[in-house]
Model the fold of this input.
Amino acid sequence: MNFNMIKNLARKNVNNLVPYQSARRLGGKGHIWLNANEFPISVHFELSQKTMNRYPECQPKLMIARYADYANLNSDQILASRGADEAIELIMKTFCEPGKDFILFCPPTYGMYKVSAEIIGINYRIVPTINNWQLNIQSIAENLNHVKVIYICRPNNPTGNLIPLNDIYNLLEITASKVLLVVDEAYIEFCIQSTLVKLLKNHKHLIILRTLSKAFALAGLRCGFILADNKVINLLLKVITPYPVAIPVSDIATQALSKENIILMQNNVKQLNINKVWLFTQLTLCNCVKEVFTSESNYILVRFENSAKVFKYLWNKGIILRDQDKNLGLEKCLRISVGTRQECEHVITALQDL
Ligand SMILES: *Cc1c(COP(=O)(O)O)cnc(C)c1O
Done:
């Protein structure tokens, strides 16, 4: 075989795929990274486990127990994965028949729902949001044919808004006993009073996604959690890889979930939310800014008069933001992760020169 023809061996889905444009893949030579919604300060950990000749537990008990404690659930309602990204995919692999079933999501929203469906070969149906990113519940209700899973991001990435609780109740009602509702709470620590964890008890078709990548400042660790009814968890356990949680991952995650470190995280979140208010106010005063959208999360979506110019100007100054211009309904928008106060000040100073 001529090895240049290797593409002929790849699946059609893969040849047609536009891969997820992660912030890391997009690159840039910055000193101020505000494009991946990472936490701006690092927490220091030491490995306590020194030997690794043995395989890890599939679901390390102490880590799971601590997360359960943190989330006010039982251990049998928790599943750990390699980040929420693996969780998104694991749910599709477990519940959707390739080539037959559909997932549904409501753009503009997190890009991995679509990319994962395309890779696995599951159909997707799009019901765009209306009136600045509210769910079109009626259209969702009319489009549930062959849909197995709905993905809702709350607070939503990249817009920062929070779908109202009433819409969630409506969704739970129209999906009951036929469709799974996945609520991605990757950013919930920034508005923790809005978590839907309490609804798990009476809504067995609700699944909540969590991660240590954002508020816990552990994006490099790759650790996420699925919160759901034990029957759902048991099905997912049949499909997950044999050893999804490496020993160093559970070691550090277990430490991050200690009582003291959770309090530390909560204090860091408070400080970041203060920075967010400051950044929001300052952005509204910049001449190049057209509109600033309120955010319940650790990033702010901003519409500029000329976003391409702003993006490039800041990029050249080493301040890396996330361009959302090509995202449905987000023309001329950039997303700015809230950094340290100093980083926020650099952004504003640069924008004032424009
Ligand atoms: C960052 C992010 C994720 C991915 O989290 P990981 O745990 O790092 O894989 C999932 N969902 C949303 C909405 C995110 O923004």
